[in-house]
């Protein structure tokens, strides 16, 4: 038996127990297929992990780049694997349509384009609100003597900008400069009379008073070169029947599905179901609150030695130009938005992260859930499966969902009680959000 693996509940037994909960008989077996129940079990294990933060895992990788996303690093416990096609299939089950994935063989109430637009719109909202798709945008051209820089329309927000000047030979190039985020009023108050006057080395950049898809610097750069920026990117556009990664953490794909269902059932004519649309919208909002509080990283190591986790804002404030030496700073791990980190290049980077909820063991036999938590997962599965039924039976099944959420809250309290500083650990991955004050700028994410 592998250590840390549950080997008491087979997938077939789990499906059978869920079938018993739903009272599946030969006369009503067409309501729920085995594949549908399998998807519900897998998705509810993800929901359970989202509510309890159970599956914390060690992870180490060799850093070849300064900036890395734990959603794409090979072998990451947080690797993003769920596609839009997976979500279309579950949405089709929950809408009582044929589960044809990225094509459409169902009724005239919906079509694959409508599902795709609803899912993509919700996914894009999730990215903007949760800051879960940051990346490094390098090689942005600097135009000497110009204060404004235009950005591609895939950029949602800019967290950090560096100016990398190139000297005109035979001069030695000056060092890169990390620009402080500011606004034009502060520039006018505190940088006059130099503000927007003689070209030189910019020191700050502004987003607040600029047109969309641009930033402005305080001093026009006097040398050519490039900017590099840590930006929040929009997700990849869906294009069914091609399969596209959803673009948010796997364990929160269910949040995007609820948001899509709220839009689909809130539309007019044949597909309208205001009651279930309101319920789905509430579940989406609850999921977003959960997403912005999830402790996706708790501890960090560089070359086997425990190090601090510091936000981009804090590093730029207290150790300016820290990444001028990408192999030797710190050692510490710099935390950006969800899954986005910087660490010394060439080092073994490790830590404890909240991994994706596993479904089956390595033999594809055993469902990965404890005996004490399986009943709560079953409650979530039964409630989710009843959504398609609608009416009084579905509303009665919501009591099971409430019971499961209450049990998950109790489990979360139990897990927190295992450590004296669990509350501190759970906040470490959220430092960039607090230090950048994104909550106040974008409103209460809950």
Structural commentary:
This protein is an alpha+beta fold and 446 residues long. It folds into two domains: 11-132 and 236-442, no CATH class; 134-233, no CATH class. Helix content is 37%, strand content 18%. It contains 13 helices and 15 strands. The protein has a seven-stranded mixed beta sheet. Helix 6 runs antiparallel to helix 7 (274-291). It is globular, with a radius of gyration of 25 Å. The two termini are 42 Å apart. Residues 418-425 and 440-446 have low confidence and may be disordered.
Concise synopsis of the structure shown:
This protein has helices spanning 11-21, 34-52, 84-94, 112-130, 184-191, 253-265, 274-291, 312-318, 371-386, 391-416, 422-427, 431-435, 438-442; strands at residues 56-62, 67-69, 134-141, 148-150, 155-165, 177-182, 204-206, 214-217, 225-233, 297-302, 305-307, 309-311, 333-335, 340-342, 348-354.
Helix/strand layout:
Blueprint: H1 11-21, H2 34-52, E1 56-62, E2 67-69, H3 84-94, H4 112-130, E3 134-141, E4 148-150, E5 155-165, E6 177-182, H5 184-191, E7 204-206, E8 214-217, E9 225-233, H6 253-265, H7 274-291, E10 297-302, E11 305-307, E12 309-311, H8 312-318, E13 333-335, E14 340-342, E15 348-354, H9 371-386, H10 391-416, H11 422-427, H12 431-435, H13 438-442
Parallel strand pairs: 6-7, 12-13
Antiparallel strand pairs: 1-15, 2-14, 3-9, 4-8, 5-6, 5-9, 7-8, 10-11, 10-15, 13-14
């Amino acid at each position: 038996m592998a250590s840390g693996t549950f080997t008491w509940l087979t997938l077939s037994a789990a499906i059978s127990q869920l079938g018993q909960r739903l009272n599946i008989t030969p006369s009503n077996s067409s309501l729920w297929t085995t594949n549908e129940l399998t998807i519900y079990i897998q998705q509810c294990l993800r929901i359970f992990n989202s509510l309890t933060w159970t599956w914390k895992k060690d992870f180490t990788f060799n850093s070849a780049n300064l900036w890395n996303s734990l959603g794409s690093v090979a072998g990451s416990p947080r690797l993003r694997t769920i596609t839009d096609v997976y979500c279309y299939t579950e949405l089709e089950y929950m809408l009582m349509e044929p589960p044809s994935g990225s094509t459409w063989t169902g009724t005239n109430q919906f079509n694959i384009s409508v599902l795709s637009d609803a899912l993509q719109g919700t996914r894009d909202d999730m990215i903007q609100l949760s800051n879960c798709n940051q990346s490094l945008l390098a090689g942005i051209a600097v135009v000497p003597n110009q204060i404004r820089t235009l950005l591609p329309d895939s950029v949602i927000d800019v967290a950090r900008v560096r100016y990398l000047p190139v000297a005109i030979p035979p001069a030695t190039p000056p060092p890169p400069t990390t620009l402080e985020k500011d606004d034009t009023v502060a520039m006018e108050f505190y940088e006059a009379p130099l503000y927007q006057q003689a070209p030189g080395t910019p020191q700050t950049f502004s987003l607040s008073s600029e047109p969309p898809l641009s930033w402005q610097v305080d001093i026009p750069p006097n040398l050519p070169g490039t900017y590099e920026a840590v930006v929040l990117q929009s997700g990849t556009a869906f294009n069914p029947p091609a399969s596209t990664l959803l673009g948010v953490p796997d364990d929160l794909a269910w949040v995007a599905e609820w948001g899509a269902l709220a839009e689909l059932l809130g539309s007019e004519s044949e597909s309208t179901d205001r009651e279930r649309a309101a319920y789905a919208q509430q579940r989406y909002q609850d999921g977003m609150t959960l997403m912005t509080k999830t402790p996706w990283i708790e501890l960090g190591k560089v070359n086997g030695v425990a190090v601090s986790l510091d936000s981009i804002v804090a590093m730029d404030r207290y150790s300016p130009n820290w990444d001028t030496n990408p192999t030797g700073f710190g050692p510490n791990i710099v935390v950006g938005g969800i899954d986005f980190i910087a660490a010394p290049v060439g080092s073994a980077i490790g830590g404890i992260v909240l991994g994706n909820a596993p479904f089956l063991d390595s033999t594809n036999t055993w469902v990965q859930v404890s005996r004490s938590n399986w009943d709560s997962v079953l409650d979530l599965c039964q409630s989710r499966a009843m959504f398609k039924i609608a009416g009084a039976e579905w509303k009665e099944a919501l009591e099971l969902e409430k019971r499961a959420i209450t049990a998950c809250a109790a489990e979360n309290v139990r897990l927190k009680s295992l450590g004296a500083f669990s509350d501190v650990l759970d906040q470490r991955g959220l430092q960039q959000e607090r230090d950048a004050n994104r909550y106040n700028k974008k409103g209460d994410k809950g």
